Write the structure tokens for this entry.
Amino acid sequence: MTRAYLGVETSATGRRWVGPSEEEMRQAEALAQSTLLPAAVAAVLARREVTAETAAGFLDPTLKDLLPDPRALRDMGRAGERILKALTGRQRIAVFADYDVDGGASAALLLDWLRAMGHRATLYIPDRIDEGYGPNIPAMQALARDHDLIVCVDCGTLSHDAIAAATGADVVVLDHHLGAETLPPALAVVNPNRQDEDGSLGHLCAAGVVFLLLVEINRQMRDAGMRGPDLLQSLDLVALATVADVAPLIGVNRALVRQGLKIMARRQRPGLVALSDVARMDSAPTPYHLGFLLGPRVNAGGRIGKADLGARLLSTADPDEAASLAERLDQLNTERREIEAAVRAAALAQAEERGTDGPLVWAAGEGWHPGVVGIVASRLKEATNRPAVVIGFDGDEGKGSGRSVSGVDLGAAIQRLASEGLLLKGGGHRMAAGLTVARDRLEPAMARLGELLARQGAGTMGPADLRLDALLMPGAATVELIDEIERAGPFGAGAPAPRFAFPDCTILHVRRVGDAHLKLSFGDGLGARIDAIAFGAFDGPLGPLIEAHGGARFHLAGRLEINSWNGRQSVQLRLEDAARAI
């Protein structure tokens, strides 16, 4: 085992600090010398295995360099041809979408493109409670009676019976969820996570798949002497979906999000403008804004309100309608937080009573709202560093959601349970999955899931190590340095924002904000000073420790960000952990 960084074996939050390896430090030093990049930036790049030869391209990811040939995905050509045929033949098209951000953004991408081509399609999003996830037989039968083509986005890969029931209409599936050994009887199933794909594009969310489809259709149109809409203007939707669906920010996803943020900053899409305003965003959008301000509000409709609100917001061209929908989603998000808090408290208490040392942490309760169980599962996962499942029962049937940790494929395990008959249905991807279980199968299903996850190494982890990219002194942390570090982004799932350690610091000022948050400033004794904020610090030991510092010196760890206020910019540390300097 490598030495603990700065000698911190057990921090304020109970974690061991782990810094860069000797090899990574050597690579960072060589990278800084050859590229003249700041040492902190070189350290971030070295951690991501970027070399001097690839640094320029990594810091400036472009779609020209990274966008794959859409036809690298199976059935892509066939899917594009069928949609183009429906467009030119003025056929009736329905878009069947999932009720989350990825589904709503995917639907909006298609609806926008069709509208730009003078064609209006029907939007159908199932109710989370009454219909559940994905295509169902009654809905598909009804849509097939009135439409020639049904396009399923962010769903459909496991919907064999429902798609078979769509007699009289062709079905195209555009999805990214893990596929089974057999595909549904659709005309085309475009999915980078089909079992007969090589997995090289498995990091795409559904909106990324839909974007590639539109690239393919535009190419087919050019070959036929036709002209399609400018697809770059739709990258704001792809960026939102990629971040909100927690798709890894690697490969082409980096370029999609980087370019999409630029498009979003132009404030051209009425729905996102209205949503940004109700969320009180006062700066250019970042992945944080997408994942924590915009995404939850778009999701709120599908979680506890009317399922199609998010997709309607993202696709509307009417600013007045956008403002009304955004206001409603903001209200629903407030209600969602209240419901979530109650379920989270009950689930955590139940999980702790059952024990959190095994390979799986789970909780189930009567009447727990199915719209918040996924969020609560995320909270349990974060608190225990274990895969977590939370299930809400209504009668004899429970609907649940799970979240996983790095290195443990929860979707495959859930799909295995469904194939073994322990679940009524289930599926997902590596980091997230959904399931439906009969009450009398709950205990054996969770026991079996624990066994499957244990085989993948779940349960062997203690509190997650705190990984640090480099050491930094307060005087070196400037707005200019943060701008340089941001070039290594975007940061998010699969590409966490760099975390720096500030050694042997003096706490200069401490102030509690609200009930749980902490604001402070610190320095190195040489005149440099940095402001910091620690959200939720008083929900754990970090806040009380720093508040009662008594003049002691501390090692501090967190992520750097730029704080904008009244037109001025300053450096701020988002404090995550601390340890007494000995």
Notes: The longest strand covers residues 500-513. The longest helix spans residues 319-354.
